[in-house]
Fold each of these.
Amino acid sequence: MNAPVLDHEAFVTRGKDGALRFDAAIEGMTCAACIGEIESALRGLPGLPHARVNYTNRRLALEWREESFDLAGAFERLRRMGYRLRPFQLAEGEQEEQEASKRLLRCLAVAAFAAMNIMLLSVSVWVGQVSDIDASTRDMFHGISGLIALPAAAFAGQPFFQSAFAALRGRRLNMDVPISLGVLLALGMSVFETLAHAEHAYFDSAIMLLTFLLLGRFLDAAMRRKTRAVAANLAALRAPIACRLSPDGVETVVPARQLRRGDRILVRPGERLPADGAIVSGASELDQSLITGETARRAVSRGDIAYAGSLNHDGALILTVEAAGGGTLLDEIERLLEKATAARSRYVRFADRVSQFYAPVVHIAALCAFVLWLLLGASIHDALVTAIAVLIVTCPCALALAVPAVQVVASGALFREGVLLNAADAIERFAEIDTVVFDKTGTLTLPHPQVVNGAEIDPQLFELAAGLARSSTHPLARAIAAGRPDAPMVAGATEEQGQGVRAPWEGEEARLGSPIYCGLETEAAALAPLDPDVSVVAFRHGDRRALFQLRQMLRPDAKEAISALLREGFRVIILSGDRPAAVAAIARSLDVADWRGGLKPADKVEQLEAMRGDGRKALMVGDGMNDAPALASAHASMSPVDAAHLTQAAADAVFLGERLSPVATTLKVSRRARRIMVANLALSVLYNAVAAPLAMLGLLTPLIAAAAMSGSSMLVTLNALRAGGAARVVSVAARADSEAKP
Amino acid sequence: MTVLLFLVPLALILGFVGLLAFLWSLNTGQYDDLDGAASRVLSDDDLGESA
């Protein structure tokens, strides 16, 4: 059988200037020296003028013009050096996020430039106020400040103005409305005062405000972009690849997205189905646990429909790709998902909730100041100046930094723990959780089966069996191979489909496979009634024999993680699509009293809705396709990195590694972050309680405004740094085992 | 105080040049791979044999 050809051309994109471009995520890049190694290996290739490694994102970009360039050759060259490449296409979302973050940085640069120069002039004026500045010099300084501030604000203020405008048009108030109003009024008044040769102008306040806020937003965007890049790499490394059969039997490897209805695909044992389809030939058993949560395998043969995401166990299958017709499980999941996502979007962000209350109060205070001064006999000009000063000083600088700064620090801490956040407001929702709902299969348990009775088996025999297992792609054989990862591969193995592998070893034949294949069916039959979830694999070498028992095991720290959650006062519930008997056993071993088995996706959503109705805020942790609607309808959700694509997209956060402890860590970090957010808001309110009366009394000079504003922003930012302290140092272990996994 | 007429524009122009330099470096992608740039400076494969 020829090795299938990987159809790289499918991933090549053509740039505007006609150059061909190819991006790939690199696996196996461990240190900075790899940059030079990869690039110099590619430099020698004919027809490739541009190859550059991005070390931050672990990605490689190739650009060339001539058609003669051999992309597959370049792949092969790097593969032999030990780097695995996976074609990579920038997701729509990531591209946008990169653009947005670049735009923020540009705005920040302009604002910072303007702020520095205006401050230079302002400090001179402030010093001159107490010494001997003459009126014409002051006017000139104000004039120059205005000439810098107006264009700078017009450019750098756009992110705020646009968002405020959009909010107003939707008849809502968000944090950007008072910000835009404050900046615009401060600029307008300063222009007026400058033209009137007045003593004070507030250009510095307006621009400094923009600079601080842009800094906060940029850091927020940069953090999110970093998380997104890691998540996209992981997705590329696990992207579904399909083996397409052309009518004349040639195998081509293509991305699953490119499969069309009617294509014929080959799925070997140990591979996941890349698309829904009807089986044309072959018979096998499918592990559908990623789709339904059911651990018992389903036997399929010609004519059956199989779903994408099922793991093929025994025999090679040829399928015709079909778009799932109405009424299938997947359609139901899509439908539920849509409904649930709409329900989630009702959540209003913390900062916006605060500003809905804050903005009217500030505007009323300014109005009161205006009216009071008028009543006390001040001129309209003086009353207006006072009112605007109130708006400037209460402009929610610290308030707008209070929440994003904490979010940046907390999501950074979570990132180091191996938790990647999908949604920006997830931290706020995680902090409110009081109930944790787990799926069983793949979430509480590891997604792959493991050898249970490894200790009872002769180590030498285990080693030999593992060596033999390495030449098979069967999922159970892989599990045995993983039990002894250092075992040397046994040469000359032949696989007999659906039965097992055999190889000559020290003059005798060694066999690994079904009990019948090894002649051990009576012994295996004796084991069967003890535990219905166990799969038995037999091994025989001459007279020596062993029976491997495999099953899905709990994650290594599941027990501690669950008991830690219970200790902290969370209610823990297990909702599973698997048989009730299998769920009961797991629930018992974890001391979880609340559990339900045999649930359909809609049942899970119903249960979560019921909890919401009782006023409980539930965190759903799940990995299967059947969990996706539940994840979307829960108050917050997480999924492990091995989860189905659809499910990961629905989750608020994805955690890496085999351990379950990130769940508890996330809740802890989020709660702490929430406390700090509240403290920060209290600080900003306190600042306003001092500064606003000063402004209302007409005592606010630009100097006081500048000092108060930067002081409170600094305080809030420093306070936010504490949010990173909650994360414990479990990350090293967690990350090590996630990186060791293939 | 006429010296201000020179010094203020001079300060502004210098600042503006800095701003332009930053925007240029941003647009040419020099901030895309900060970790890589930090390590690349240590590699000396630009010396000697270039094949």
Amino acid sequence: MELNDLKAFWNEDADKLSNRINLNEKVIGEMKLENVVNGFLSFLNVSLWGRNLALVYSLISVVCALFVWHEYQYSIPLLIGAAAMLWSFVHHLSIEEPKDYFKISIVEFQKSICKFRIHTARAKKYDTSIVIVWFLTLLPLCLRKIFGMDVYDNTQYLIALVVLDVVVVVVMVLFSRYIYKVYDRELKAAESHLAEILTFEKTSL
Amino acid sequence: MNTTIDKEEFIRIIRENRRIIYKIVYTYCSDPDDRKDLEQEMLIQLWQSLKNYDSNYRLSTWLYKVCLNVAISHYRKEKKHTDGRESLDVSIFKMADEGQDEIMSERTQRLHTFINQLDKLNKAVIILHLEGHSHKETADILGISESNVGTKMHRIKNLLKQNFSTTPN
């Protein structure tokens, strides 16, 4: 078969289609919000999960600290990590719970996205730091319990911990930069879509 | 252009060019639910892009440009589209005789099977070729070089020969 034969089939198919396709014009007239709402909800849910996980991480640190309570070189950093995570949880309580965005006006919905975007932009600096602090405070105990490496009694183990710390910091910084960039881009796109739908709705039919 | 064009005019443009949108949607999406999402994305992008429409270009060229760009980026997202997002419940297209889909001619089926095995950019190239666009127009619409279009067309022709030399006519 040659390309010309393919073209003939295509045109034949297209001619048949032209007679059969009609537009559901009412659907076009009522530009839907689903895609924007669903996209926003997925970001919101991820953030709420993250917030609740902060509380779980805080509890993990507290429980670990209780097990090594009298070894202050382990327990004090763990408590610092727990406090940092708890602070993160409390700070993120201001994230609004998902609501039925189809029932509110587009302007209200735009405000919700904008508020969330501002919250995320403000939180990104210390959120990354908190997660890094938590990892760093937990690592010495993990190394001791899993690999039997007491980093405070052995210089080589201590060097291994420092190397691991550097790796954690680099990975976390790169990962959070990427994630927050995606968040910001998608939320800006959602706001822009809403603005277009608003313009579309304002024009007369 | 958004400031001067109204919704009625927008719907007229969509109505007159419905075949282009339909063809692109059906070529890029096999899943009916996903098609509805793609239609919606295309409509929003078309509405947004109207303000940048350059009247020196043919309207259909602009339409291809927007729709194919949306389809290509949607195609990338399609695999990730299992995140629990719900699809739209209504399509913008109404078929005059729904049953016809199942009695597609063997030739048409082969045509679609062939196009479906191409990657996202080659799909766009073959659609534009079959719709009668020159290499230059195709390059302009897809934002690639004319020689790149030529190379892709050459590969598609070879693939076509390979495919149909092994299957009976």
